Amino acid sequence: MSDEEHHFESKADAGASKTYPQQAGTIRKNGYIVIKNRPCKVVEVSTSKTGKHGHAKCHFVGIDIFNGKKLEDIVPSSHNCDVPHVTRTDYQLIDISEDGFLSLLTENGSTKDDLRLPTDDALLGQIKDGFAEGKDLVVTAMCSMGEEQICALKDIGPK
Q1: Is the Cβ–Cβ distance between 74 and 59 less than 8 Å?
Q2: What range(s) does the Translation initiation factor 5A C-terminal domain occupy (predicted)?
Q3: Tell me: the pLDDT tens digits for 11-47?
Q4: What Cα–Cα distance (Å) separates residue 113 from each residue in 58, 70, 88, 97, 103?
């Protein structure tokens, strides 16, 4: 036996993938797909007939779920596409810091301080106005592929 101590530095996550494969022909409108390494919500799907080389092709039009940009991709319907794992989590708003970060209360009672105010002006205004009025606000954060952003707001009454 050796008397040395071993220290392992872990720089990885739990090994869970950010995406999972799904056959292109089974992806429908309002589903999710990865286009150009960005998680997108599918807004339009069209399928072409099999051509001379035998593959029907799916034409996907998606909107990036974080920045709203429109992206397109064409994939043979029998091939696999990456589909992002998308989760939505509700947090209660505690405070808004000077540098634009939110202090949020999680389900288990701990605080989360690493989410920025949203870039969407309408949502940003609603959050700031509601907080200034002293309302009890719950924000919904969407998380996918290592990114997290606030996408919705609920007013649960005055404090």
Answers
A1: yes
A2: 85-154
A3: 445 545 788 999 998 999 999 999 999 999 999 999 9
A4: 41, 30, 17, 9, 5
Yes or no: say if 80 and 22 are a contact pair by the CB < 8 Å rule: yes
| Residues 6+ away with beta carbon under 8 Å from 68 | none
What's the number of domains the chain is made of?
A: 2
Mention every residue, 6+ apart, whose C-beta is less than 8 A from residue 64: 38, 39, 40, 70, 71
- Shared domain check, 110 and 52: no
Tens digit of each residue's pLDDT (9 = 90 or more) over 63-116:
999 888 999 999 988 899 999 999 999 988 888 888 888 888 888 888 888 888
Q: What are phi and psi of 64, to 5 degrees?
A: -55, 130
Nearest to 62 by CA among 26, 80, 79, 37: 37
Tell me the residue range of the domain where 56 lies: 19-84
Structure token digits, residue 40: 């997108």
Q: 152: domain CATH number? A: 2.40.50.140
